[in-house]
Amino acid sequence: xxxxxxPGRSAELxxxxxxxxxxxxHTRSAVVASSDGVKKHLHGLTAxxxxxxxxxxxxxxxxxxxxxxxxxxxxxxxxxxxxEHDDGLLFVSRAGNSAVLAVLASHEADLSLVxxxxxxxxxxVASHLATPVRTSVSPGAxx
Length: 143
Fold this sequence. Notes:
By secondary structure, the protein is α+β, with helices and mostly antiparallel strands. The chain has three helices and five strands, in the order H-E-E-H-E-E-E-H. It has helices at residues 11-23, 47-65, 111-129; strands spanning 27-34, 39-43, 80-85, 88-94, 99-105. A five-stranded antiparallel β-sheet has the order 2-1-5-4-3, sandwiched between helices. A hairpin with a 4-residue loop joins strand 4 and strand 5 (99-105). The chain is globular and about 40 Å long.
Protein backbone atom coordinates (compact mmCIF):
# COMPACT_ATOMS: atom_id res chain seq x y z
CA UNK A 1 0.00 0.00 0.00
CA UNK A 2 1.56 3.29 -1.07
CA UNK A 3 0.73 6.42 0.88
CA UNK A 4 -0.17 9.60 -0.94
CA UNK A 5 1.38 12.89 0.11
CA UNK A 6 -1.24 15.36 1.24
CA PRO A 7 -0.79 19.13 0.98
CA GLY A 8 1.56 20.57 3.59
CA ARG A 9 3.50 17.33 4.12
CA SER A 10 7.07 16.77 3.04
CA ALA A 11 7.43 13.99 0.47
CA GLU A 12 11.07 13.55 1.51
CA LEU A 13 10.14 12.49 5.02
CA UNK A 14 7.44 10.15 3.73
CA UNK A 15 10.13 8.68 1.48
CA UNK A 16 12.40 8.11 4.50
CA UNK A 17 9.62 6.13 6.18
CA UNK A 18 9.09 4.11 3.00
CA UNK A 19 12.82 3.40 2.81
CA UNK A 20 12.84 2.33 6.47
CA UNK A 21 9.97 -0.13 5.89
CA UNK A 22 11.63 -1.54 2.77
CA UNK A 23 15.03 -1.97 4.49
CA UNK A 24 13.97 -3.46 7.81
CA UNK A 25 12.67 -6.99 7.46
CA HIS A 26 9.15 -7.74 8.67
CA THR A 27 8.12 -4.12 9.21
CA ARG A 28 4.83 -3.13 7.54
CA SER A 29 4.02 0.53 8.07
CA ALA A 30 5.05 3.66 9.92
CA VAL A 31 3.70 7.02 11.00
CA VAL A 32 5.18 10.15 12.55
CA ALA A 33 2.74 12.13 14.65
CA SER A 34 2.80 15.25 16.77
CA SER A 35 2.63 14.62 20.51
CA ASP A 36 -1.06 15.56 20.45
CA GLY A 37 -1.86 12.77 17.98
CA VAL A 38 -1.93 14.55 14.62
CA LYS A 39 -0.35 12.51 11.81
CA LYS A 40 2.50 14.25 10.00
CA HIS A 41 4.17 11.62 7.82
CA LEU A 42 3.16 8.07 6.93
CA HIS A 43 3.88 5.02 4.85
CA GLY A 44 1.87 1.86 4.29
CA LEU A 45 -1.32 3.19 5.88
CA THR A 46 -4.48 4.87 4.69
CA ALA A 47 -5.15 8.34 6.09
CA UNK A 48 -7.77 6.90 8.48
CA UNK A 49 -5.40 4.17 9.69
CA UNK A 50 -2.65 6.76 10.20
CA UNK A 51 -5.04 8.95 12.22
CA UNK A 52 -5.89 6.02 14.50
CA UNK A 53 -2.30 4.85 14.87
CA UNK A 54 -1.16 8.41 15.62
CA UNK A 55 -3.68 8.66 18.46
CA UNK A 56 -2.69 5.24 19.82
CA UNK A 57 1.06 5.98 19.64
CA UNK A 58 0.85 9.33 21.38
CA UNK A 59 -1.47 7.88 24.01
CA UNK A 60 1.02 5.09 24.73
CA UNK A 61 3.85 7.62 25.13
CA UNK A 62 1.73 9.68 27.45
CA UNK A 63 0.92 6.65 29.61
CA UNK A 64 4.55 5.49 29.59
CA UNK A 65 5.71 8.84 30.97
CA UNK A 66 4.01 7.79 34.20
CA UNK A 67 6.71 5.14 34.67
CA UNK A 68 9.06 8.00 35.54
CA UNK A 69 7.12 8.44 38.78
CA UNK A 70 8.66 5.15 39.93
CA UNK A 71 12.23 5.86 38.82
CA UNK A 72 14.54 7.97 40.96
CA UNK A 73 15.81 11.12 39.18
CA UNK A 74 13.60 10.52 36.15
CA UNK A 75 13.65 13.01 33.27
CA UNK A 76 10.19 11.89 32.21
CA UNK A 77 11.30 11.16 28.65
CA UNK A 78 10.08 7.93 27.08
CA UNK A 79 12.58 6.30 24.76
CA UNK A 80 10.48 3.46 23.38
CA UNK A 81 7.30 1.51 23.98
CA UNK A 82 6.80 -1.94 22.46
CA UNK A 83 3.39 -3.58 22.35
CA GLU A 84 3.18 -7.28 21.58
CA HIS A 85 -0.20 -8.14 20.08
CA ASP A 86 -1.46 -11.51 18.83
CA ASP A 87 -1.23 -10.15 15.29
CA GLY A 88 2.06 -8.26 15.43
CA LEU A 89 4.24 -5.70 17.15
CA LEU A 90 3.95 -1.95 17.61
CA PHE A 91 7.07 0.09 18.31
CA VAL A 92 6.69 3.70 19.45
CA SER A 93 9.55 6.10 20.14
CA ARG A 94 10.12 9.82 20.58
CA ALA A 95 10.90 11.49 17.26
CA GLY A 96 12.25 14.90 18.02
CA ASN A 97 10.60 17.63 20.03
CA SER A 98 6.86 16.93 20.51
CA ALA A 99 6.69 14.08 17.98
CA VAL A 100 6.54 10.28 17.99
CA LEU A 101 7.43 7.57 15.48
CA ALA A 102 5.31 4.40 15.37
CA VAL A 103 6.23 1.28 13.39
CA LEU A 104 4.06 -1.80 12.89
CA ALA A 105 5.84 -5.12 12.35
CA SER A 106 5.17 -8.83 12.30
CA HIS A 107 6.34 -11.18 15.06
CA GLU A 108 9.24 -12.25 12.87
CA ALA A 109 10.84 -8.80 13.22
CA ASP A 110 14.09 -8.52 15.16
CA LEU A 111 13.09 -6.32 18.12
CA SER A 112 16.57 -4.96 18.80
CA LEU A 113 17.16 -4.19 15.10
CA VAL A 114 13.85 -2.36 14.71
CA UNK A 115 14.49 -0.35 17.87
CA UNK A 116 18.03 0.51 16.82
CA UNK A 117 17.04 1.54 13.30
CA UNK A 118 14.18 3.68 14.64
CA UNK A 119 16.65 5.47 16.92
CA UNK A 120 19.04 6.02 14.01
CA UNK A 121 16.25 7.38 11.80
CA UNK A 122 15.12 9.78 14.51
CA UNK A 123 18.69 10.85 15.23
CA UNK A 124 19.37 11.64 11.57
CA VAL A 125 16.23 13.71 10.94
CA ALA A 126 14.99 14.74 14.40
CA SER A 127 14.95 18.45 13.61
CA HIS A 128 12.65 17.78 10.63
CA LEU A 129 10.29 15.61 12.69
CA ALA A 130 9.88 18.07 15.55
CA THR A 131 6.52 19.74 15.99
CA PRO A 132 6.54 23.38 17.06
CA VAL A 133 4.54 24.25 20.15
CA ARG A 134 1.11 25.58 19.23
CA THR A 135 0.23 29.08 20.30
CA SER A 136 -3.32 30.04 21.11
CA VAL A 137 -5.04 32.73 19.12
CA SER A 138 -7.38 35.04 20.95
CA PRO A 139 -10.94 35.10 19.54
CA GLY A 140 -10.67 38.65 18.18
CA ALA A 141 -7.20 38.28 16.63
CA UNK A 142 -6.75 38.35 12.87
CA UNK A 143 -5.48 35.14 11.32
